[in-house]
């Protein structure tokens, strides 16, 4: 086909220019049998025909070129699609190879698991056989146990029958004992009735004695109320290297023993350090002071603010000094007793105690 196109193009090249002139030729003889020799006129017609064919061929050529370009583009697209398909096929082959390798590994793993399961099933079957044998053995033991249980049940029924018979005998014995007890109680009641008068006489005597005891108890209570219980004991303790004092006057202010051990009757006031006699009576008081050799120490016991007894320690070579004293005083109700320091004295600790010996009228 390409060869024909080239030949036509060659012919067209010969007549590619416009005809130099147009000739007016006479018409060909109407008789087809009359054929003249070729003339310029007939050659012109041939050339004109060829020129027409050239135009047609040029259109066909353009069409063929357009189709050829389209075919080339389609072929290029097909080649590109083929290349992509080839790449996809290659990638798919790789993926399938990996999948196949994975599947092979899984198949190998499943085969191994299948082997393990087969062994486990064999073990389970053996255990089931052993369990079945044990079950049969236990069934035999259970049948023997049922037989023993039935025998024991029969023995129990027999014992129950015997117990019922014994219980009936016991009920009969209990009724007989109840009758005897009722008879004895009746006799005892009669005996009590006979001794009731004697008991009434004794009760009257006991009542008289009780009245006498009650009168004596009233007198004892009155005496106890008159003789009150009074006792106290308290200490005064400062912290490390801290002292109470010194006094700036001959008779200093009251020492307050604020750590109370005992305060029966509440006659001692731990806030003021003063003891107030609740009743008239004879009281005993004891006190102790403790100090160091660097200070003069000691204390004075006063009654209603009047000096009674005291302790005194001078400075000396010893490390510490302790002094104590005791006195018995007769106090009227509301008399006061307390402790004071000597002038210039200091103490580190001390104890003050007192109690009622007896009351006086």
TrEMBL record:
Q: Which InterPro entries match?
A: C1q_dom (IPR001073), Cerebellin_Synaptic_Org (IPR050822), Tumour_necrosis_fac-like_dom (IPR008983)
**Location, primary (coarse class):** secreted
Top-level taxonomic group: Eukaryota
Q: Where in the cell is it found?
A: Secreted
Q: Which UniProt keywords apply?
A: Coiled coil, Secreted, Signal
Of the GO CC terms on this record, one is: extracellular region
Q: Which Gene3D superfamilies match?
A: 2.60.120.40
Residue ranges of domain C1q in the record: 225-361
**What is the protein name for this chain?**
Uncharacterized protein LOC114435882 isoform X3
Q: Which organism is it from?
A: Parambassis ranga
Name the gene. LOC114435882
């Amino acid at each position: 086909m390409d060869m024909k196109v080239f030949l036509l193009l060659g012919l067209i090249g010969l007549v590619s220019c416009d005809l130099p002139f147009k000739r007016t030729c006479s018409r060909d003889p109407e008789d087809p049998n009359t054929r003249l020799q070729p003339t310029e006129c007939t050659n012109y017609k041939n050339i004109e025909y060829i020129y027409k064919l050239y135009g047609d061929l040029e259109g066909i050529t353009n069409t063929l070129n357009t189709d050829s370009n389209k075919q080339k583009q389609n072929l290029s697209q097909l080649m590109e699609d083929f290349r992509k398909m080839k790449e996809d096929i290659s990638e798919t082959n790789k993926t399938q190879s990996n999948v196949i390798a994975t599947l092979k590994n899984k198949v190998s793993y499943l085969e191994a698991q299948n082997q393990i399961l087969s062994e486990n099933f064999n073990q389970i079957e053996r255990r089931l056989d052993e369990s079945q044998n044990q079950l049969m053995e236990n069934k035999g033991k259970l049948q023997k146990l049922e037989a023993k249980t039935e025998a024991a049940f029969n023995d129990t029924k027999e014992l129950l029958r015997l117990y019922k018979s014994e219980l009936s005998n016991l009920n009969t014995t209990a009724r007989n004992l109840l009758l005897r007890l009722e008879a004895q109680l009746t006799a005892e009641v009669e005996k009590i009735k006979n001794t009731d008068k004697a008991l009434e006489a004794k009760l009257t005597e006991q009542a008289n004695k009780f009245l006498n005891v009650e009168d004596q108890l009233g007198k004892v209570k009155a005496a106890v109320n008159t003789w009150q219980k009074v006792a106290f004991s308290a200490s005064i303790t400062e912290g490390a290297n801290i002292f109470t004092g010194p006094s700036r006057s001959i008779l200093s202010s009251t020492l307050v023993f604020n750590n109370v051990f005992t305060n029966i009757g509440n006659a001692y006031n731990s806030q003021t350090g003063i003891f107030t006699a609740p009743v008239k009576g004879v009281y005993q008081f004891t006190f102790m002071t403790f100090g160091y050799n660097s200070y003069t120490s000691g204390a004075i016991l006063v009654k209603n603010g009047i000096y009674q007894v005291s302790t005194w320690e001078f400075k000396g070579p010893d490390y510490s000094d302790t002094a104590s004293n005791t006195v018995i005083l007769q106090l009227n109700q509301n008399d006061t007793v307390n402790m004071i320091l000597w002038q210039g004295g200091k103490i580190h600790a001390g104890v003050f105690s007192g109690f009622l010996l007896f009351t006086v009228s």
